[in-house]
Amino acid sequence: MKLLLLTALTMAAFAANSVLNRAGVAGQGMDPLAFGVIRLASGAAALGAIVLWQKRGLTVGGAGRGIAVVALLAYIFGFSEAYRGLDAGLGALLLFGVVQVTMFGGALIAREEVPATRWIGATAALAGLIWLLWPSGAVTVPIGAALAMAGAGVGWGIYSLQGRRETDATQATAMNFILAAPLALAVWLALGSEGQLRPAGVALAVVSGVLTSGLGYALWYAILPRLGAARAGVAQLSVPVIAMAGGMVFLAEPVTLRFVGAAVLVIAGVLISMRRV
To answer: Which of 4, 85, 102, 130 has a CA 20 to 30 Å removed from the CA of 153?
Structure first.
């Protein structure tokens, strides 16, 4: 039960990231890359301060740290670039579908036991997500944006898989952010900004960086060894549902019967997959 509650809290943090991103980019007119850079930098500052205050020190680590940093940047920039041309719902479906495939692939490669209930839960949750997010009518998918989102999904899947090997979740997340932030800043400066840096938008990015990204990702790394790759992959299918519910509560978006039915299917699938073997 404790693991289930911690997983739910982490998924809520991931969903809050989506709501904050939409509010900052769509509501405040911020450039998605600028939002991502501020998010990384503020998360790096907060996590670095926590680790130093606890006197645990900051160590770069080996090749695994490099893999995590590159994967994190692939997720941040792929996500930002994809939403320039993808519908939000279709983008989320593509992102979490690819994450699911990557995480299950990692589980099979690591010879992790994946019982039938986990496959059933994953199928149910993914079906619910498709029902919820699949656009109505004819759909034109920009190939470049779709590839960028697929890259983001692979990046996040690899970042999550790497977390299973970390022994100090907070320190590992802090170093990932500290190393990724200057690289992200360099890319952003090289590409230029297309949005505005309004105080409200910057504040949203800082909240996302410190709380829902920094601390949320540290909590994710802390529970990943206990979850395993397959259960972690299925759990993340709940994020779009929680994000949409957050939009209904905080952004006054309408509640629909389609959302209610799909949400029940997704959550049921996640709960089935979370059962112990």
So the answer is: 4
What integer pLDDT is reported at residue 84 of this predicted model?
67
Residues 6+ apart with CB under 8 A from 11: 235, 236, 238, 239, 242
Helix, strand, coil percent content, the chain, rounded in steps of 5: 80, 0, 20
User: Distance (Å, rounded) from C-alpha 42 to C-alpha 204?
Assistant: 11
What is the C-alpha to C-alpha distance for residues 235 and 238, in angstroms, rounded to an integer? 6
Give the integer Cα–Cα distance in Å for 6 and 226: 11
pLDDT reported for residue 228:
86
H-type helices in 23-142, by residue range?
32-53, 63-82, 88-109, 116-133
Identify the CA nearest to 104 among candidates 273, 249, 240, 264: 273
How far apart are alpha carbons 220 and 222 in whole angstroms?
A: 5
Put residue 112 in one of left, alpha, beta given phi > 0 → left and psi -120 to 50 → alpha: beta
**46-74 b/e (C-beta count within 10 Å ≥ 16 → b):** bbbebbeeeeeeeeebeeebebbbbbbbb
Cβ-proximal residues to 125 (8 Å cutoff; 6+ apart), any chain: 234, 237, 238, 265, 266, 267, 268, 269, 270, 273
35-44, 70-79, 209-218, 246-255: least confident range: 246-255
How many CB atoms sit inside 10 A of residue 131's CB?
15
* Cβ(90)–Cβ(135) below 8 Å: yes
pLDDT in tens, 58-94: 777 778 899 999 999 999 888 777 766 666 667 778 8
User: Mean per-residue pLDDT for 226-246?
Assistant: 87
